[in-house]
């Protein structure tokens, strides 16, 4: 009897109980998978946002650095091109330390841009080996018309654009900027002599002035990816320009300029070290920044530019996929941005539904063009 009672008391798992257990397990596994999927997509979205912010900062640092160096105390007279035609830095044969160009495709786009701006700058180029091999002037002389460089510096500078007869400029130690007449071997000869109360010792760094242009690449051919990028073009005027994608994901750059002497109605157009007060309120404010100007000598002279407001917009390289299992992209940018005088919705090919699927970061900085000759 006891044995029979024990046999009847050992119950197994019923089908209902098994189904309930499977349902509970399925819920737990599904919830866990959902959490993992959401966490993974959230991590990727955060990484993209951080990368986009980093790209904007990197682009800003590169552009701001070169604006600070623009001109590198380049002499205004004789006003001849730097490095041959100076590429984008020359307008009508006149070399310009800073040359901004607004993107306006059609007159209907006025008064706003319908694309990214470009900015050309004359900046110094150097290598560790581009140094003086002997001091100048050589005692007991007090003047000099040439310098001697170490090793293969001269041939390297010739490759970079310092070609005889092109009007190229070099800078000795960032103090003396001189026009090159000829160069060969280890010697660089200047078009005029210098008599200065200073001696440049052996080992002093020598710089070659070049024209560089910042622009936005918008094709996979230019950028190497499907996203836009910041391009840096080096143009010596004597060889084919060298174009490099230096920052991925940069979608827009805009420049506003503050000048001293560009408005003939203010101080009769004579620079006095104070930014032109366009709205006559005795305060430097937003009304004194200039955009949509055709900057060229004798009209709106770019030599009067003293400060540059830089606006950089970077966007993520790919669209986020939402936080659930669905693959649809979310709305990450609520509406078209207005950056300086550029309204993004005015761009050719603008599609709101596509535009809104990319997260964007904007940075703005005011940079003093401290090396422009006055």
From TrEMBL:
GO terms for biological process: type IV pilus assembly. Keywords: Membrane, Transmembrane, Transmembrane helix. NCBIfam families: IV_pilin_GFxxxE (TIGR02532). The keyword Membrane applies. It comes from Nitrospira japonica. This is Putative Type IV pilus assembly protein PilW. The chain crosses the membrane at residues 12-36. It holds the Pfam family N_methyl.
């Amino acid at each position: 009897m006891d044995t029979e009672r024990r046999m009847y008391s050992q119950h197994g798992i019923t089908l209902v109980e098994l189904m309930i257990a499977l349902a509970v397990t399925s819920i737990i596994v599904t919830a866990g998978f959902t959490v993992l999927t959401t966490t993974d997509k959230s991590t990727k979205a955060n990484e993209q946002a951080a990368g986009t912010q980093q790209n904007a900062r990197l682009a800003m640092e590169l552009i701001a650095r070169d604006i600070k160096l623009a001109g590198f105390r380049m002499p205004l007279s004789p006003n001849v091109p730097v490095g041959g035609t100076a590429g984008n830095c020359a307008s009508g044969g006149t070399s310009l330390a800073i040359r901004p160009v607004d993107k306006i495709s059609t007159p209907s786009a006025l008064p706003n841009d319908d694309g990214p701006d470009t900015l050309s700058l004359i900046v110094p180029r150097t290598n560790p080996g581009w140094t003086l091999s002997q001091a100048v002037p050589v005692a007991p002389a007090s003047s000099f018309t040439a310098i001697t460089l170490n090793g293969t510096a001269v041939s390297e500078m010739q490759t970079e654009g310092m070609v005889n007869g092109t009007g190229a400029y070099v800078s000795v130690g960032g103090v003396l900027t001189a026009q090159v007449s000829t160069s060969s071997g280890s010697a660089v000869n200047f078009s005029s002599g210098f008599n200065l109360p200073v001696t440049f010792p052996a080992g002093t760094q020598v710089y070659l002035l070049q024209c560089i242009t910042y622009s936005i690449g918008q094709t996979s051919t230019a950028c190497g990816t499907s996203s836009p990028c910041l391009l840096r073009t080096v143009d010596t005027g004597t060889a084919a320009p060298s174009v490099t994608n230096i920052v991925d994901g940069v979608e827009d750059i805009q420049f506003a300029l503050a000048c001293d002497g560009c408005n003939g109605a203010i101080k009769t157009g004579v620079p006095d070290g104070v930014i032109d007060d366009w709205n006559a309120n005795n305060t430097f404010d937003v009304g004194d920044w200039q955009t949509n100007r055709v900057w060229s000598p004798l009209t709106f002279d770019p030599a009067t530019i003293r400060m540059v407001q830089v606006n950089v917009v970077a966007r993520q390289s790919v669209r986020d996929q939402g936080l659930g299992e669905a693959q649809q992209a979310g709305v990450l940018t609520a509406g078209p941005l207005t950056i300086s005088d550029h309204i993004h919705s005015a761009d050719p090919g603008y599609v709101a539904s596509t535009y809104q699927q990319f997260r964007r970061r904007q940075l703005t900085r005011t940079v003093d063009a401290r090396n422009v000759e006055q």
